Amino acid sequence: TYVFIFVLFGSVLEVTGAGRFFIDLAYAATGRQRGGPAKAAVVASLGMGSITGSAPANVVTTGPFTIPLMKRLGYRPSQAGGIEAAASTGGQITPPLMGAGAFLMAEYTGVPYIDIVKVSVYPALLYFLTVYLFVHIIALKQDMRGLPASELPSVRAVMKEGWHFLLPLVILVYLLVTGLSPMRVGFYAIVSIVVVAILRYAYDWL
Questions:
Q1: Is 70 exceeded by the pLDDT of residue 99?
Q2: Is residue 147 left, alpha or beta, with left meaning phi > 0 and alpha meaning psi from -120 to 50?
Q3: Which end of the chain is more exposed for a tag (fewer CB within 10 A), N or C?
């Protein structure tokens, strides 16, 4: 019950263009470094995983962009697939959704949801830092380089184009902290995405 509403939230967010926003932001931030596409896969999976809580949804969203670029840079197909799978799996332990695991923990243990999220932040960061470190080590061993700046967007340009995608996430986290039921939180978060998307498209049209 809980998983469905938040997978739906992530899907609606992706359809409106948020998936591409997180991927572009990750490439803008890490693309010039050694093994840039692989590091971008880790960062993008962290962003998408935090809102979908689903490893398969994470792979489907970021994989089509990151895996071909990793292979082009010199990663073997098995390495590219493994990096994407490992990074996307971390979405299931990344707050605030954690694959709906946080809600189940709160329900069964009686511990407030916000307390579970607090203690989950550090393990999630350690997981992604470990994957990021392994990606860097592979890039050093295989003497890889990053992508040229001409092929990458700037962080400022990406934020200017897609900053509004952060609003539904802020609303989601705020509603979770206030203690609303997961179903209400998911519903209001989806409504907020639709409203933000309509306002953005109306602004572009005008």
A1: no
A2: beta
A3: C
